[in-house]
Amino acid sequence: MIRKLPLLLAGALLGATAMNLVDSTLGLTANAAGSETYKQLAIFGDVFERVRAQYVTPPDEKALVENAINGMLTSLDPHSSYMNAEAAKDMRVQTKGEFGGLGIEVTMENDLVKVITPIDDTPAAKAGVLAGDYISKIDGEEVRGLTLNDAVDKMRGAVNTPIKLEILRKGADKPLEITVVRDIIKVKAVKYRVEDDIGYMKITSFTEKTYDDLQAAIEKIKSQIPKDKLKGYVLDLRLNPGGLLDQAVSVSDTFLDRGEIVSTRGRDPKDVSRFDARAGDDIDGKPLIVLINGGSASASEIVAGALQDHRRATVVGTQSFGKGSVQTIIPLPESGALRLTTALYYTPSGKSIQGKGITPDVKVEQPLPDELKGRDVSRGESDLKGHIKGVEESDAGSGSAAYVPPDPKDDIQLNYAEDLLRGVKTDPSFPPNPDKAVLNQ
């Protein structure tokens, strides 16, 4: 599968994360550790000094400390980590949903950066960058030899600063030089379209803009399909790795009129937080189908679990990722941050999906294309080394294939969801086609 990385998503990816952001700094007290712990810390200090003084080549002391901290945190679970100033800044940029950049989605192909698509009305599109272009040089530096992340880092920058790209374009007899002036790029967290009498909404991530983008998508769909013609909505959460917890709550609340959305429970039995829906269903009670697969994680699972438990939506697809933990981002000195797992979340019925995932109401497998057959495209929390064992976790584990066809015509899960909304229930084991067998109508 071609690996692609949106330039409009800067820096380290959030991954499968439902997060709380806190502003308080971390306070440590002298009684936080026993005497034995202090002895071990003294040993650590001694080892550090010996490495610093006697290693065969002078080590990078800052890297030593960062790696030691990360080693401690990753031994807890796969989602706790230390972020230095640069990584913390990237995380804040991504959750905010806007930053200074070019506005292109790129991948690496044949050792060059290939433009998947320029985003409409962004600096790259206005400068004439086209889908299918290959970027061979960035400000005069050869792209060959760079990783995709390295290339993306070089293309990011401050707003109103220029960048010169050398472009190889099919049909052009020589490389093109295009200068792009960086500008603020606003990430669309929700994409939507109208499928005749059905509104389709895909949430790509849970950033600070997700709820507002969802509201705008719903209004656009309502304006394009008369209420008496609108059969319902499809909410696509496939390949959505998660994001901000408060946005997951707001998205769930969009479709719920009452009741609990999710609860989080920490180490202390008294440390329980509950989030409830407010009155009002923004799609006026219209039928709703939620699509999930092995790429649906954390915040996505909060939404799917809440709507499923309240019987507000029919969940279609395959087993979700199964990440039921909440990370709190704690600011540290020198602009770094600690990402620490502080709680597990539970669906309204009290189920923990940690290591289990959301089981769809209707299981619909998505066949893989020939080029992916035989490859492991399954994703699941239960497969991660050192993951927190979930109370509902079984030997079956969590997760499933994380694949969605690029062409909606080949999307069996989406086609099945649309059939359900139109009152045509087809056998989920068969691909949709003009001669498909109707079970009941």
Structural write-up:
With 441 residues, the chain is of the alpha+beta class. It folds into 2 domains: 100-186, PDZ domain (Pdz3 Domain), CATH 2.30.42; 190-433, 2-enoyl-CoA Hydratase, Chain A, domain 1 (Alpha-Beta Complex). Helices cover 24% and strands 27% of the residues. The chain has 9 helices and 26 strands. It has helices spanning 35-54, 61-74, 85-96, 123-127, 148-155, 210-224, 245-255, 299-309, 412-421; strands spanning 4-6, 17-21, 81-83, 98-101, 104-109, 112-118, 134-138, 141-142, 162-168, 176-181, 183-186, 190-195, 198-203, 232-236, 242-244, 260-265, 272-276, 288-292, 314-317, 325-331, 337-346, 362-363, 378-379, 400-401, 425-426, 438-440. Strands 1, 5, 6, 7, 8, 9 and 10 form a 7-stranded antiparallel sheet that branches. Strand 9 (162-168) and strand 10 form a beta hairpin. Helix 6 (210-224) runs parallel beside helix 7 and helix 7 runs parallel beside helix 8. The longest helix is centred in the first third of the chain and has 20 residues, at 35-54. The radius of gyration is 24 Å and the shape is globular. The two termini are 37 Å apart.
